[in-house]
Structure formats: structure tokens, C-alpha cells
Amino acid sequence: GWHLDGYGRRIISINGKSVAEHRHLVATKLGRELKRSEQVHHINCDKTDNRIENLHLFTDVSEHLTSHRSLEAIIKPLMERGIIKFNNNKGRYEICTNQQ
Question: Whole-angstrom Cα distance, residue 7 to residue 93?
């Protein structure tokens, strides 16, 4: 079986031990255990999408956070182009449906 943890990540049981599925899949692909410092990133930001092509390994948390900051940096240009907007009623970003 499996369950989602508090961060929305899929947790599976391997030899009676609970492990994050995305970390297990990357470790299997590499043929080695991941270091605790290594971070697995979901490229499309969907933490339940553990397809190997959607996973990227960073050597540490700093590199991982830099990737998230790069995503934040493109929000302004996307808003200026009318691709995304902030919905004040919902408090969330959304894709604009009235693109030209």
C-alpha cells in the first residue's frame, strides 16, 4: 500500500520501511542510495507525479530552492503577458482563460 504524507508526497513501503516513492525511484535508477542531503524535485510541481522523467536530482537543498526561486522569478513576466493572473477571491494564481 501507500499513503500521502503531510507534504502531498506518495509514501510506499519497501521491506517494511516507509520511503518517499520519488526518492526510491531515483535511487533505483541511479543504482545507489540517495544521500540525505540530495533533493528530488518534481519538475511539473505535482508531488504525486513520480514518473522518472518528471524527477530531477539536486545535490542539496540550496540548489533545490534556487530552482523554485527561478519559477517565482517568471511569475511577473507571465502576468505582464496575460498568461497568468492572481485571483484575489481565491488567493491563488490561475491561468488566464481570455488569452489573445
Answer: 20
Which stretches of the chain are DSSP H helices?
A: 21-30, 61-73, 75-80
Residue 50 CB contacts under 8 Å (≥ 6 apart), including other chains: 10, 21, 22, 25, 42
CB neighbour list of residue 25: distance below 8 Å, 6 or more residues apart: 50, 52, 55
Cell 540548489 found at: 63
Q: Tell me, what's the pLDDT at 95?
A: 96
The answer, yes or no, to whether residue 99 has pLDDT greater than 70, is no
Cα–Cα distance list, 11 to 19, 60, 61, 80 (Å): 5, 21, 20, 39
